[in-house]
Structures are given as structure tokens and as C-alpha cells.
Amino acid sequence: MKPNELRIGNLTDKGVIKSFYEHGVHVGMGKCFSFDELHPVEITCDILLKYGFKKSSPKQYASDAKNLKTATIYECGIIVWNENTKMTWVGNCCIDNVEYFHDIQNLFFALTGTELV
Fold it and tell me: What's the pTM value of the predicted model, to 2 decimals?
């Protein structure tokens, strides 16, 4: 993984990043990994549900779905991921290159200033 794509709190295949050191990351319990050893976690329905997304329609998941009707979900600051197309929507903008969960985490933080819990 590229160091410039990562933040503390990002999920990787080795765990959640707790801190950085010169050539890699700490993922907790004293475990350190170089950037070359880290691999991204692909976006899946299970990962999204685990991190607070809600199923908003049969094939869509939303980061904040107060009203789970598709027509009302596309609001500013809400991230919607479509299982069929693998497209990510933020408001009315479609982002088609979001493949990994750390990208969703970073996008969520950039939009809301808070972490996915």
C-alpha cells in the first residue's frame, strides 16, 4: 500500500493502523508492518455493515440512512455504495475508482471530519 493513502484508523489486512513509523505502521499489540507487507481490504457488504453502513435498498449501502428510501439518500455528506456496479456516490457525484475500504474511510473523514466507528 502507498503510505500517502493511509491514515491512523484505516483498516488493512493486518489490522487497524494505530500509528506510523518511518517505514511502516503499528497495528496494535506491538505488531509492526512495513508498507510493502500491507494490503488493502476490498469493500464488501459485510465490511460496510460492520462499520455502520445500513442497507438502503437491495443492493445499496449508505453511511447515514435516516430515511432508507433511495430517493432521499443522496444528500451531501452521505456515502452510498452500490453492490452491483461497485460505484460510490457522495451526494449527486459518482466516484467509480473506490475499491478499498480505507478509501471509503478517508472519503468519509474528508466529508464529515469524523471517523467511521
Answer: 0.81
